[in-house]
Amino acid sequence: MSTRLRIAVLASGRGSNLQALIDAQRNGRLPIEVVLVASDKAHAAALRRAEDAGIATLALDPKSYADRAAFDADLFARVAACEPDLIVLAGFMRILSPDVLAPWAGHIINIHPSLLPKYRGLHTHRRALGAGDPTHGASVHYVTAELDSGPTIAQIEIPIVASDTPDALASRLLGREHELLVASVALIASGRVALADSRVVYDGAALTAPLLLGEDGTLAPRTA
Ligand code: GRF
């Protein structure tokens, strides 16, 4: 694809994944244009990062809407007005209603800090440690109406070590999450990954397991 993929990012907090996308675009590794960063938190650091990068921002306060459906409808109308090719949920801490997601099927992804289908929802690092898992990781998946449950595109897997605390594990994972998101968006931008019939298609064939991020930062099918 010669044109750049237009991306809208929704973020509620720190925005380090957004920053990874911005940095990768800037240094020529990602053919994207971030056309909007939207948040449900006016003080989100993600919005400041976007402003610093000269990206349009939008902050909407859920409390000023009658209900969840009204907030979601306004947010997605404004996002749609920017005509993104892809919406990226990067630390967006709200559940979205099925009505607004349906038109974006196959064009909205989320990054989640666990090896899905394990540990949907919150406190994933603590839960992985508590279960005694040997590894932990993060997933990039297409978003569906069910929380953290859409078809998974790609994962990064890291070992859990004896000294790990939830915070230590989270911070060790975060840098790899950034690589995972950038590599996943690169595959979507190049047209090598798409969603068809509720399955992730990679190089023309439906995936039977998520792609895995290698040490070299590239995504490839898992080897048995
Ligand atoms: C990341 O851990 C992401 O996987 C999760 O929320 C966190 C967002 O971090 N969905 P940041 O705001 O991108 O720094």
Structure, explained:
There is one protein chain. This protein is an alpha/beta fold and 224 residues long. The chain has two domains: 1-104, Rossmann fold (3-Layer(aba) Sandwich), CATH 3.40.50; 113-137 and 156-224, Rossmann fold (3-Layer(aba) Sandwich). The chain is built from six helices and twelve strands. It has helices at 16-26, 45-52, 68-81, 98-101, 124-130, 166-189; strands at residues 5-10, 32-39, 57-59, 86-89, 108-112, 135-142, 152-159, 193-196, 199-202, 205-206, 211-213, 219-220. The strands form two sheets. It has a nine-stranded mixed beta sheet, covered by helices on one side. Strands 8-9-10 form a three-stranded antiparallel beta sheet. α2 links the parallel β2 and β3 (57-59). α1 crosses α6 (166-189). The protein is globular, with a radius of gyration of 17 Å. The chain starts with a strand and ends with a strand. The mean pLDDT is 97. The protein binds 5-O-phosphono-beta-D-ribofuranosylamine. 5-O-phosphono-beta-D-ribofuranosylamine is lined by residues 11, 13-17, 90-91, 111-113, 138, 177.
